[in-house]
């Protein structure tokens, strides 16, 4: 019996989602909890897993279709959902009534858009005794991806009709106005039908595809007049997967260039090939690890945005990495293992995870001087190309323009001496890592000081409604932390940050940042902020003019920490010149509610707290 995969509720205010990419194709086998499809909402992009194991028999929602929460996305069965006539094929040759009965069964199980029973009968008679597993296809539906997400757009199918999928194996990518995500297969089986094509927008709950066994729908043996989606046998499925490797490789290259829907890309230039060979030669550990029997050939595994970003951060050449995930997928662990092997070969000692964590904190000039040249978020090979803007980029563009149109924004900048915090961090870094389990960056110090300052200056932790002529002063400090991801800037929220100590903030910041980068953050965690912090110093910027995240009234930009000669006055009033660690704080505020004096008082409170550096007790010093 077939199981329907529906779009689950993904948040309180999310009512719909858009299918961005199918990770499985009709006919693919899927395992329980294997990703089926990626769905995008206005809060987050996520993968929808398969609730059962089986074969994807039918996709009910095409990519870019928007569906409501609860709508069926696909059907998953054991492969007999759309091809029960195959089971009675031998009897059909002997008895006509058996043929008619099989045709009636097909008519009951066939989804919309399938051939008529007469056509199916002729197709079945053209096959050669494909065995039947019984049961029906399972529907893969667009799940709820957040409280305010009602639809999603299918951006890319990761599987084709006839591909076998495992439970939780990604089927497709779905984009919303918040994030892009992968939708997993709820069952193991064969992707039988894709219901939502790429660029289709579907509502939450809409059917995206059908997954069943290989004998159903797209898994049955094709005849000359069949739709071309059916597979003759398991061997043909494997052949088809082999044939798809080359396009998949070019698709991976296009993704690395930022093109979500590119199907063909130019071959790598000789210089790129030479670079890859050089990387492989200087990293024998990677080549040795690539001999794992369960891994795919280097460069042929599916690569998620997180993996690409992680590879960029750790200077790992993905063309030399073999994926050990389901379907040859290159996982985060593969990249980290390759990075560790590369560092071991180069004599490096710092773990990649710590490098990534450090990038989340304001940078310092000496560290920046020794770091390699910053890489672009878009591959330089896209020069001269035109590509469709990802949905998340479209949403960011819309929200930023709306914010500037709605509020009167201006920015005030204060300079802060954070030398004491730099010294405290240096003393406590090792012990803090052991005790808290996360790296101690500068961001927890700043967030702690911001939460305390917001309690003293509630106007900065408020929202203003011109329509209702009301000012809402929020009861808690729900601070949003901007996180730079492969597909754009996202702002997960730390609820009630004012109630957390320094260690709690450090752990929470590291947690939400990691889950945001790995596309595992929930939609509800990306909304509800009352004040935002964006760490512009992570890329070396001294100051910026950040744009307010509506309906908030302020956002703080933290610049890079640099050492400069400064005039220092001692307790007796004597001046001297000393080398100090300095940082700029840029506060953009909504002048409809916050005056320049209000912003100045808030920044002064924040500056005094940071310059005082009274955090030793919380660090156990």
From TrEMBL:
Low complexity biased stretches: 286-298, 349-377
Entry GO MF terms: acetyltransferase activity; lipoic acid binding
Enzyme Commission number(s): 2.3.1.-
Cofactor: (R)-lipoate
Occurrences of domain Peripheral subunit-binding (PSBD) (ranges): 302-339
Domain Lipoyl-binding: 2-77, 137-212
InterPro entries assigned: 2-oxoA_DH_lipoyl-BS, 2-oxoacid_DH_actylTfrase, 2-oxoacid_DH_E2_comp, 2-oxoglutarate_DH_E2, Biotin_lipoyl, CAT-like_dom_sf, E3-bd_dom_sf, PSBD
CDD domains assigned: lipoyl_domain (cd06849)
Region (Disordered): 72-151, 212-308, 349-386
Biased composition (Basic and acidic residues): 273-285
Keywords, comma-separated and alphabetical: Acyltransferase, Lipoyl, Transferase
Enzyme class: transferase
Biased composition, class Acidic residues, residue ranges: 87-108, 245-254
Record-level GO cellular component terms: cytoplasm
A Pfam entry, by short name: E3_binding
PANTHER family: DIHYDROLIPOAMIDE ACETYLTRANSFERASE COMPONENT OF PYRUVATE DEHYDROGENASE COMPLEX, LIPOAMIDE ACYLTRANSFERASE COMPONENT OF BRANCHED-CHAIN ALPHA-KETO ACID DEHYDROGENASE COMPLEX, MITOCHONDRIAL
Family: Belongs to the 2-oxoacid dehydrogenase family.
Protein name, per record: Dihydrolipoamide acetyltransferase component of pyruvate dehydrogenase complex
Species the sequence originates in: Micrococcus luteus (Micrococcus lysodeikticus)
